[in-house]
Recover the amino acids of this structure.
């Protein structure tokens, strides 16, 4: 399973520590304004194969941040023709990953959004090496795009004025906590996070257009810092 890598503490891993393949699949968050619908469904083989294209992953990654968008606007953002983005949107729609925005647009200019409910991707349980590799490649690309936004934010912080910095003081942070835990304890942390998200993040949905509201991104990662053989990542 794809994981974000960081430096290990250098301590020897415990022999019975879990391997990355045993982790819960990474859930892709719902688009803004979507209702909570329970745990996200895991993508099936056909949908996963359809998603295994860098531009489609980019489109699916962009829609919750910039969307809803037309094929033309997506083309401007990603540097592709509207015909290309329109084709890829239709392929994503075939597998329920995106949908047209109801009541918006025309027959010539359709607006698209991420389908509510989110989804998850796991390399565990796949019946072939190719299936596992596809799942890992898709996850790695989503993580790469996420990391690009983090780096862009850090770079932007060097360019803004003092008044802007003061306004957003305390509104962004990057925290890494390195602990030792059993699989059961790690699952308990994840369950606590899910309760926190339901209480504090879900109520923020549907705030597009509210005065002072801007798009935010929240990350929460839980993973062992060893490989399947127990070696530090």
């Amino acid at each position: 399973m794809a994981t974000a890598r960081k430096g290990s503490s250098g301590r020897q891993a415990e022999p019975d520590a879990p391997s990355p393949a045993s982790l819960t699949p990474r859930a892709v968050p719902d688009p803004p304004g979507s209702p909570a619908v329970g745990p996200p469904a895991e993508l099936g083989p056909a949908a996963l194969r359809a998603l295994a294209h860098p531009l489609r992953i980019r489109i699916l990654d962009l829609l919750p941040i910039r969307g809803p968008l037309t094929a033309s606007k997506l083309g401007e953002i990603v540097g592709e023709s509207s015909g290309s983005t329109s084709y890829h949107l239709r392929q994503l729609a075939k597998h329920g990953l995106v949908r047209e925005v109801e009541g918006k647009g025309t027959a010539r200019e359709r607006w698209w959004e991420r389908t509510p409910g989110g989804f998850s991707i796991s390399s565990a349980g796949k019946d072939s090496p190719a299936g596992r590799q596809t799942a890992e490649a898709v996850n790695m690309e989503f993580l790469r795009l996420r990391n690009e936004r983090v780096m862009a934010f850090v770079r932007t912080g060097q360019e803004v004025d003092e008044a802007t910095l003061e306004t957003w003081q305390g509104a962004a942070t990057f925290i890494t906590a390195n602990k030792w835990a059993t699989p059961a304890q790690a699952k308990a942390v994840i369950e606590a996070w899910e309760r926190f998200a339901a209480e504090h993040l879900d109520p923020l949905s549907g705030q597009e257009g509210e005065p002072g509201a801007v798009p935010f991104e929240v990350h929460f990662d839980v993973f062992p810092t060893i490989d399947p053989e127990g070696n530090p990542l």
Remarks:
- The mean pLDDT is 81.
- The CA atoms of residues 47 and 95 lie 6 Å apart.
